[in-house]
Amino acid sequence: MTVLQVTDLIVGDGKETVKGALITTQYRGFLQDGTQFDSSYDKGKAFQCVIGTGRVIKGWDQGIMGMKVGGKRKLFVPAHLAYGDRNMGKNIPPNSDLSFEIELFEVLTRDD
Question: Which pTM value belongs to this model?
Answer without folding.
Answer: 0.94
